Amino acid sequence: MKKIQLKPAALAAIALAVLVAGAAVFFMRGKSPEEDKKAAVVRPALTVTTAQPERVSLPVKLAANGNIVAWQEAIVGAEAPGQRIAQVHVNVGDRVRKGEVLATFAEGTPQAELAQFRATVAEAEAAAADAAANAERARSLQTTGALSASQINQYLTAEKTAKAKLEAARAVLQAQQVRVSQTEVRAPDAGIISARAATVGAVVGNGTELFRLIRQGRLEWRAEVTSQELGRITTGTTALVTAASGARLAGRVRTIGPTVDPQTRSALVYVDVTPLPGMPASARAGMFARGEFDLGATPAITLPQAAVVVRDGFSYVYRVNPDNRVSQVKVQTGRVVGDRIEIVNGLAADARVVAAGAGFLNDGDLVRIAEAPAAAARPANASTASR
Length: 387
What we know:
Layout: H1 8-28, H2 33-40, E1 46-48, E2 50-51, E3 54-70, E4 73-77, E5 83-88, E6 95-96, E7 101-105, H3 108-140, H4 149-181, E8 184-186, E9 191-196, E10 203-204, E11 209-215, E12 219-226, E13 238-243, E14 248-256, E15 266-275, E16 288-304, E17 309-311, E18 314-320, E19 326-337, E20 340-345, E21 353-354, E22 367-369
Parallel strand pairs: 1-22
Antiparallel strand pairs: 2-21, 3-12, 3-16, 4-11, 5-7, 5-10, 6-9, 7-8, 9-11, 12-15, 13-14, 13-16, 14-15, 16-20, 17-18, 18-19, 19-20
Helix pairs in contact: 3-4
C-alpha cells in the first residue's frame, strides 16, 4: 500500500482551515456566565440627591389691583368776586403749611372802600351820640311839661334810629374788613399743591377754583376686591403695595366700601399707604398699583422648587422607590415662598423625591443616590421651621 505524502503547501492550507474553524466555534459558543451578568447590569441614568416634604408655616396673601389716589383733595377758590390776582406764591408740587399764603389780590380798591366805610361808621357814631343826648334831655323834661308827649317820642325814636344806623354801618365795615382779608388766599390745611389755575392779572369771580390741595400729602390705594374675597379682609389688615413706578409702600386697610359694583362684582378697599423706609417717594396720585394683603399664615407641606417639573401644563415630582428607580407622580402645587413650593396634594408626607435634576429623568429610570452636602453651620439662636 502506498503512503500519501502531502506537499508543504497543502499542509499549510489544512492548518489554516483548522484554525479558522476553531475560532468560529469559539465565538459561536457565547460569553461566559460572569460576562453575561456584567452585561445584564444597567447603568444608572443620573446621580441625584433626594429630599422629603417639609412642613412649614407659609404666609397667606391676597393679591389685588387698584389705583393710588389722594386721600382727600381740597379745592381752594376765590371768596370775593371781581378781584384781580396780583401775585401767586406757590406752584404745582409745592408742599405748604396750614394758613400759608398761596396768592394775593390787588388791595387798592378794597382798601379804599374800607376807608369809606370807616368814615361812614364815624358819621353814624356822631349822629347816634347827638340823638342820644337829645333823648336824654327829653326824658329829663318829661315831668316838667316843657315838651309835649309827641315831641318826647320823636326824640326817643330818633335815638333808636341813630343806633340802628350805627349798627348797620358797623356791619358794613366788618364785611369790608373780611373782604380785605380775602385779598390773601391761604391754605386751608397742610398738604401738596396738585393743581393750579391762578394766573397773575386775572380777574376772578366768586368761587372760582384757584388751587387743588392734597390734604396732609396723604395717599391711599383703592384696591378692587371680588365679592368672594371681600370677607377675608378686615379693617386694619396690612398690605404691601407696589406702584407702577416701582415704589413699594406699606399699607393698612382704613375702611371697606359699603357697596359692590353690580357689573364687575367687586368692591373698593381703602388702604392708607406710606413709603417704606429707604424707598424713594415716587408714588403719585393716579398711578396704577398692585398689592398683596397679609392674611396671616397656615401650615403647609413644601419641597424645593427644583424638585417639581412642569410638563404639558401639569406638575410632577419623581419619587425614589426602594430599588432606586423613580416613579413620576402628578402633584398639585400652591404657594411659592423663596426656594420652597407648597404641595397641596398628590404626595405622601414621608415620600422621598429627587431634589435636583428631575427634569432629565423619565418614569422608571434607575438613579444613583448621592449624599447630600453638609449643611452650613447655623448660629446658636437660629430656629428651624415647624414640622
